[in-house]
Amino acid sequence: MICPTCGHDNVPGSEECSNCFGDLTQLDRPIASNRVERSLMEDPVCLLQPPKPVTLLPTATVREALQTMLARDIGALLVVDAAGKLVGIFSERDLLTKVAGVPRYPDLLVQTVMTANPETVSASDTLAFALHKMDVGGYRHMPIIESGRPVGVISVRDMLRHITRLCGD
Question: For the whole model, what pTM was predicted?
């Protein structure tokens, strides 16, 4: 890494020049080379205009959750407490991995099979940050939170639609 101040060749990843002690941290920042990269690096999650989340209480049954998911054509429900704070998420994956094959599953409470304390993002986080969290965690849905309360949900499908629009224009 060449120091822009003195021209000294430093070890890649150095935070300061070993010759003049100048700051090199800005040189490690990625630079967007196209519209998709620029959008992912700079645009906030709220750009996706996520719909208002569909929520339910932890005491709802799996039957109620499934009926809601089918009626709304969605793949995940946010589970909130009586104060409206996020406590979990119930998704298609929870249904397949924790409910399928369980006798009398419709009577199970959502709180027993939901994913508790899910990863979240804020509306001001970048798309790249959200996408990275989704990728690392293997999540298809990510709650958007403000002051502990859900304000939206984004999905991998939302991200793909956004990227496809950018590529098509």
Answer: 0.80
